[in-house]
Design brief:
Helices cover 38% and strands 24% of the residues. The chain is α+β, with helices and mostly antiparallel strands. Strands 6, 10, 11, 12, 13, 14, 15, 16 and 17 form a 9-stranded mixed sheet that branches. The longest helix has 36 residues.
Amino acid sequence: MYIKDLIGCEGKDITLQGWVANKRDSKGLVFLYLRDGTGMCQCVVSLEVVGEEKFNAAKKITLESSFSITGKIVKDEKQIGGYEIQATDINVISYAEEFPIAKKEHGVDFLMDHRHLWLRSQRQWAIMKIRNRIIFSIHQFFQEEGFVEMDAPIFTGNACEGTSNLFESDFYGDPAYLSQSGQLYGEAMAMAMGKIYTFGPTFRAEKSKTRRHLSEFWMIEPEMAFYDIFQNMNLIENFLRRVVSDVLRDCKNELEIIGRDISVLQQIIKPFPRLTYDEAVRIIKGEENVNGKNSITSLEEERENIGKDIFTKEIEIENYKKKLSEPGIKKGEIGYFQSKVDKLIQEKGDLEELFANMRQWITSAQNFEYGNDFGGSDETVITRLFDVPIMVYNWPHEVKAFYLKRDPDNSKFARGVDVLAPEGYGEIVGGGERETDEKLLREKIIENQLPMEAFEWYLDLRRYGSVPHAGFGLGLERLVTWICKLPHVRESIPFPRMYGRLLP
């Protein structure tokens, strides 16, 4: 049996198998917190019930040791998971060596070096469970909407969006690249199937260490024949609303474990604001307010409050350090006060980083030059003013991919759309309507200095039965990061690959 199956089994005798997530003991009793991949449950081992040999085995057991336990299920709302196992038998499968991840603050580099073990922590478990639900919901949505799942190649002979951030490899003597998008192939498949989606790994060789970048990540890329940009935006909105709603319904426990304030996620039922590039630029620069809030002044006010919070943290740290230096302090108090100091130092560091970032955000917003693409700072500034994702469309064609259609009402703009997640998380979706004019496509290929011969097959799609069509790409890890409100995208994937990180 698994922990997830305990509901409704009160009073029954069952056997569970798993690992020791935590342990404490007292005279005649050992309390083991068992995790089995589906949840956690407290197990009570009594000397009187199991006998001296089994009890001593339980006392000897170490963190992350594997064991099986048999006992009666007792409902107890105070316990994690709402149940407790009163053991009648316990068998140790394997004693673990001293676990390197202790119950204390660890640096990020240490935790990433031990990612294979860090995944066992309750918080990381909850994030991966939410990721799994998001993936399942994505497939459900597209299958129910009549899409066909198709697969784009990972090895490609051409660049989808330019060659500056590609991983090049040798393909039997010819240069090949790890795919940065399956979108071009998605267009070909949509011309055969009508509505398709791909879901697979993509690769970007940007030497970036920002909180938003991975070198290997998973992309969902639907492509739809006979769609324009506005139908595309409707689909994106319905899609994101469905996924977030499913997580809110099915992952209540996991969201609680990671401490996610779900009030913002619950706003997903509201319509997504749709802004032109011009409107978005005015908001970023503080020339236009959103519901009475100004991007620049609100940041300045918040930055001032954060400065006060940093000062308060400094006082608290000094107070706890004084307590640690007092004579006669008990051993238990030392651990308690030191943990408080460690936590406060971490919180102060996070606030100091945010304080510094806000100055940069303000400067970037004030100096934004019309015609540029949005950087991470610009996306952060505008999305902090909204509580739902926003759609920014009709971009200057120079800053967007060569395959986007020009706006028929103003050829300066391309019919692209970026979806920016609220709370400062920025772009999670990029898409748009595709150019159907072969002549204009050729011009854009030349303008981007791409090899024409590599795109002849793509131009065939315009020669033989071209139709209006559109699509988008959603980065799975960025969506997980926003839904879970993670400080860094590296926690959104089991084993992140990014600049400077190839192991474990």
